[in-house]
Amino acid sequence: MDQVAAVEYRRAAARGRWLALLAVALALAALVVAAPGLPGWLAGALRAAPLAALAALALFTLPGLALLRLLHPTALPVADRLVYAVGLSGAVPPLLLLYGGLAGLRWGPWSCWGFLALCAAVASWPPHRPAHGAATARFDLAGGLLLLVAGLGLLARLYAVRDLVAGQFGDSYHHTVIAQLMLEHGGLFHSWQPYVPLTTFTYHFGFHSLVVWLHWLSGYPVTTGVVAVGQILGAAPAPLVGRLAAP
Length: 247
Known about the structure:
Layout: H1 2-34, H2 38-48, H3 50-59, H4 62-71, H5 78-89, H6 92-102, H7 109-123, H8 141-160, H9 169-185, H10 206-218, H11 222-235, H12 237-245
Helix pairs in contact: 1-8, 3-10, 4-5, 4-7, 5-8, 5-12, 6-10, 7-10, 8-11, 8-12, 9-10, 9-11, 10-11
C-alpha cells in the first residue's frame, strides 16, 4: 500500500510540474503577443543603464540574503531563499536611514556600496550543515516558476511605464520631492526648504529610501526612480505572498 501511495504521489507531482511549466509558457506567450516590443525594449534598457539594473538587483536581494544567513543559517531551497530575500531587502534601507540619522551618519554612494559588499560577504558564507548529512539547499521547481512568473510581471509593469520620465499626478510629485530632499540631506530631514516652507517630517519614508538608494548606487535619476521603484515594489510581494500561502 505504501509503495502504491508513493507511486501515485510521484505521478501527481510530475503532473503538477508539467502543468506549472505549461502555465508559465502560456504566460510568456501572452506577454510576447500583448507586448511584442518588450524584448527589444529590455535589451535597449539594459544597454542604456546596466549599472542601474545591477544596483536594483543587488539592492533588492543582498540585504535579505544576508539577513537570512544570519537568522536562518540552515540551508533553504534556492527559490525560497530568493523569495524571502526580496521581501526582507526592502525593509533594510529605511531602517539604515533612520538609525543612521540618529547617529549623524550621511549616506552616499560609497557607504551604500560598502554596505552591499558586506551583505554579499555575509550571504556567501557557507550555510550550516546538519550533523547527519549535507546541507539541504536545492532548487525547487515550483518556487523557481513562481519567481519566473513574478519576473515576467515586473517586466510587463516596467514596459508599461517605459516612456515616463517622472511620476504622474499629485502624489508622485510629493514622493519625488521627499526623495530629492533625502538625497540632498544624505538621509532623513526636517526642513523642506527650498521646496516647501515646512520644518517637520512625519511621513513614512520606506519607498523614498529605496528610490534614494538606487540613485546613490547607480546615479539613476530620482524622478525616474520614483516610477521604476514603484513598479518593483508592486511586483515584489507577489512571490512572497504565494510562498507564504502555500500549504
